[in-house]
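Write out this protein's structure.
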Amino acid sequence: MTITIHAQIPRTLQSSCDIMALAAHPDDTEFGAAGTVIRWADEGQSVVYAIATNGDKGTSDPGLTPAKLAEIRKAEQARAAQLIGAREVVYMGYPDQGLEDTPELRKDIVRLLRLYRPRVLVTSDPYRRYLWHRDHRIIGQVAMDAVFPYARDHLAYPDLLDQGLTPHKVAEIYFWGTEDFNFQSDITTTFDRKIEALQCHESQMKEFKHSDPVAWLRERCREMAAGTDFALAEGFHRVRLPL
């Protein structure tokens, strides 16, 4: 399948998707939800990636400029999304470490939701305590606000109505990186492909300060499967929206 890459949010109506993975940075979806998203794609559900920032700060290499790093990370994300089975990747164009809870970001996410009309939104948990990237907290919170009530209400953005972007109700949100998961997703058969997708992010994996990151992640997924008959799982806080 050929993947479509958008350097910015499309301005015209797109065909709807089943799943939208909304991440603060390239590689976030792979770490948090790739095993589950792969399974959904294998089942025939259409997947669109939306990446809020260009990832231009995520390095300890003093020889890399922000512009070069952003270019590398876009290419890595495109390869990973292709492996996972995503149909499209949309780059929203915000700077890394630069997300704020602003009307502009909220409206951009509403635009995406009304353009692609996903049934399920997957993103990072805004309520994880203490050690959590600020961009992760903000994208999760603004996404929740965009879903409920802004994307839903026709009077929220009259100018979007004028552009043909009618209200849309997301049915479910799955928050990854949560400390309060209420849903365990079986990734026993997709874990190896999750790792393959993660390894597309070479610039980030070499920054991972662990002697064996694959073993570490396998153990994390084994822990998240506790209490089920799954060998490996991804844990989410799942929110079902009133329809």
